[in-house]
């Protein structure tokens, strides 16, 4: 019997009364594994109202208690780590190693949320004027909302609701309609950790449900991760309704390869960062910028990529899993065809990929292009598949200019043995996250995830200190007390409790 995905409203997992349902499929064979409801307006309204009412009491819960909730939660997530990863693999197609990494990176953010007491400390200055002190305090906003993508169904929800709730808010989560099962399990464990009823709500759906959240007057913030067109819509619509919005969008991440770099390290890291997770991550390296003579490394890069093959989640020899849907596969295949038609040299073509036992899966094998020009659609569009492009330049200055001319600014890397080259690159590059001899520079949660330019719409980024700022408002208090008001006399008693 096909599972019907529940809503999570007011502390209760319940079946939706919706008449509109969406198939959730296994990308390895496109079989239907669940039915997802597009929540009704009444159901979304009930979720928001529950969160709104719960906020009134939750914001008064002492910060150390909120911190202990996150400590309990991270321990439960660790205990059920492999179980969550298995569930995650079933709906995303990720191989088990990638799924475990997805869960673990989320756990790291929950651990940071457990540090909320120190993150919410304000500032104080005594005697800003005679007998006058000024101090600031950070207070939660109210009901926050998150709209998450298919590619990291554990990590990205855990970027959002633990930090928001630890800061004293309540949260309404709308997970991707393609991968809803992991979020339900995350909510079950959050409840087991001791989360009060109404602190977290989960509603499902598509654009209609998202637009309802964007316009609702009781929603104070919107957090989003996804494609560029949707991120723009989220940001423009959310801010139009006077909400605080952080919208993480697409990317075209470049790795610059200098002639003095360690060739073996470069090739290994290019392969893993380009085809890992089937290239379906916003921090994947999709462009290798080969400086000077490093274009001579392409045959060895091709040989290394050819050894990687996709497979099912439990295949220990598979390098990655399928693309999320047939639509995603068709898009990747279109861009591969256009790359060939527009003059790029297809060194390795993964278009005709078959995986034994899974004839109906969304498979694309590693694909490598050389002689790529920036005018080609394969370069201009985010491919989101296991495809690596090689662009050739003569100097580091040309490499920097090429990367800065790209509209995206999520992540970039440089591989070099020269400290001066690395410093010049990190200083001049207009990208938010830079790796030096590190292929995918995703920061740990005590820093923030800091995409720039066309990769991010908003001001304050995910997790780290910026997330706490995003989910709180600062109140500044100026106080004055008069010495003449101090009680005097023999009957003065101080009671300590």
UniProtKB/TrEMBL annotation:
Keywords: NAD, Oxidoreductase. It holds the Pfam family Aldedh. It is an enzyme of class 1 (oxidoreductase). GO terms for molecular function: methylmalonate-semialdehyde dehydrogenase (acylating, NAD) activity. Residues 14-477 form the Aldehyde dehydrogenase domain. InterPro entries: Ald_DH/histidinol_DH, Ald_DH_C, Ald_DH_CS_CYS, Ald_DH_N, Aldehyde_DH_dom, MeMal-semiAld_DH. The keyword NAD applies. Its EC number is 1.2.1.27. One of its GO terms (biological process) is thymine catabolic process. NCBIfam families: MMSDH. Belongs to the aldehyde dehydrogenase family. This is methylmalonate-semialdehyde dehydrogenase (CoA acylating). It comes from Photobacterium proteolyticum.
